Each structure stands twice: as C-alpha cells, then as structure tokens.
Amino acid sequence: MHVYVYRKEPSNYVKGLQDGMIDEYNWWQIQHLLGNTKRSRQILNEAVPLRGVLNCFCNQPLTAGNSKGKKNYYWYYKCNSHYTINLSANKLHTQFNEMLDCFSLKPIQLNYLHNKAEQEMEDQLRNRKQMLVQVEKKWKEAIAQVDTLEEKFINNHVGLETYQKWYNTYKSQEAALRNQKEQLQDNNNAKWQLFHTTLPKLGDIKYLYESATLVQKQEFVRRVFNSKLYYLAGVYRTPYLLNLFFHNTLILKEKGLLIIEQPGKKIAKNWECAPGGN
Ligand SMILES: [Zn+2]
Fold this sequence. Notes:
By secondary structure, the chain is mainly α. It contains ten helices and six strands. The chain has two domains: 113 residues, no CATH class; 97 residues.
C-alpha cells in the first residue's frame, strides 16, 4: 500500500511537501499568487507573457520583439545587452508548458496533502479548545479581581489612589485575556476553505497558468522561481524553486526542461522513487 511506503521512509520529499504546507509559508505564497494582481510598469502582451520575468543568463530580464512573416508576427525574446540572443517565443512557451505539466501534483500527492491538512486542522482545533479553557478561566478570575476591588473601594477598604492604580492594572489584564480568548474562538474557517478549493487546482498547473490573467501569469513566474528563472543553451534554469514543485526535478532535468542550480539543502527526493512517480 502506498501509505506504507511513506511511513517506512519519511524521506526528504515528504518533508519538502510538509514544509510547503504545514508551516504554511510556501502554501500561502501559492494562495497569494493565485489572487495577486500586483501592477507592473511593463508593457504587457499576451504573445510574450515571459517578457520581463524570464531572465537572460546575464540576469537582465529578457525583452521581446517580433518579425512579420507571410501571415503572422513571429515573436522572440531578446536581451538588450546580448544582441545575438534571439529566442523563439513559440519554442520557449512549448518548453514552459511541458515544465508546468511536470509541476502538476498527482492524485496521490494531492491526497497526501489533503490528509495532512485535515490532520493539521484537527490538531489545531484540539489545541485551541484546550487553550481556550485555560484562558477563559484566567479571564473570569481577572473579572472577579476587578469586582472585588470595586467592592473594597465602595466599602472604604481602599483609598482612591490605590483603587485607581489597581483598577488600571486589572482592567488591562482582563482586556488582554479577552483578546486572547476571542482569537482562540476564531476557527480559521475561511483559511481552510480556501485551502480546499485551491488544492485540486494544483493537479493541473498548466491549466492553472493558462487560465490566469497575464498579470497573474507573471506573478506566478516571479514567485515560483523567486524572480530568478533564466534561459541558457536551450534550457530553463533557476537557483530557486518553490518547495511545492520540487517533486519532479530529476525528470525536468532529464527532459531538458529545467535545471535547478545550487540545490543545496533544498533538494528533495524525486517522486519517481515513490509510488505515483512517473
Ligand atoms: Zn544578456
């Protein structure tokens, strides 16, 4: 059974996926980019969506140009510093789409993320409930302290100065605890709902990309590669790749679609070693 393999070998790729979701950082980066519509000062053109977000090997963003054929314009990407560079937009887009296909998560991976999320949600809920009990107890004690103080003041057991001093202290304690209580009562429903609606979309990254607006496409490229994607000798290359997409890096390399440079500690075991890998 598949699950058996995961448990038997808690390898790096599992950690990679967990990191991408459990600490939520990478996960919410994805969420953010799906809805992000940051404006760019660049001239945007559907024909060359990678203009400005794909770099030359010299780190400068590639610009674009076109030449008119018999019927159509033929677009190409070029570098302002390297005049010999002339990259066919058609070819680059085809390769880019193939790369996105490799990013797509398989049902077994989506299932894994789904199960982990459910577990995380349950854990969080349980922890919240336990903490809420404690905080509510302290909060009621703080209210009681204020009441007692007021009673003492009314019965002339404490003077005005003492009353005012302690009243402020107790009141601020009560307010802090009330605030904590309210935060614990918020169950993060909206966040989890967003997770569940977004998760299935990760099963077809190419479709996700193609159905995005031009601005979203560019934001996607920037975030997935941390603005470091470049093209050299017929292959996309990057020193950074979002953790969530680390599952097929070996295949991407073998197919000449993407080379991850200086992988360092971020490298994750390939899914081909796991059930469901291709
Ligand atoms: Zn250049």
